[in-house]
Amino acid sequence: MDEAGACGAREARAERQRAAILDAAMACLVRGGLKSDRMLSAIARQAGISRPTLYRYFDSYEAVRDALTERELTRLVSDLVPLADELTWDVRSFGALIGYIVTFVRNHPLFSAAPADNRGALAPQFASQAFLPLRYALSVLKPRIEQRIADGAIPPIDVEFAADVFGRIVLSFTFTNGLVPLDSADDLARYLERALTLVLGMAVESPGA
């Protein structure tokens, strides 16, 4: 094997090991009951490697957490691309987009199976630091939405402002409960259609203002 081939093989092994560590981190977080000061040891055991080996890839629990969050966010955004490519200016289309995101996060193992203390460890990625995943999603989806505007499927809108608004809506539906139970995807879809109809149907100014 020549030098280039050997280098490629090493990189492939490193990528497989990194993926295995993130899979182990997912399993540990889902099992729950682990604090950050013990998490790296648990992840190393789950991955079948030593802690020094783990440190060659990630130097802290936060680095593992951030890489895992980034990987799962990348998967979500890739799923959203087809929806963005078909987006139209109606409540059903936007409701489907929002509903998919909310359902994805609600059903994700990190949130659906992990206990409250582990959700708290991950919550900053989706709450006070929500602008970080939102910026990443926008970097992928904004050109596609702008193309829909150019095609006439969506009126000229401020895409970044719209993303911020809908991002806040997603966070609200994901992490809070209201008066209306939303226990199924169908319940959520119907609620979103009604909510968007109400909001989009409002006049900017009151009649006679």
TrEMBL record:
Q: Name one Pfam family in it.
A: TetR_N
PROSITE patterns noted in UniProt: HTH_TETR_2
- DNA-binding annotation, residue ranges on this chain: 39-58
Picking any one GO molecular function of the record gives: DNA-binding transcription factor activity
Q: Where is the HTH tetR-type domain?
A: 15-76
- Alphabetic keyword roster: DNA-binding
Query: Which SUPFAM superfamilies did the record assign?
Result: Homeodomain-like
* The protein, known as: HTH tetR-type domain-containing protein
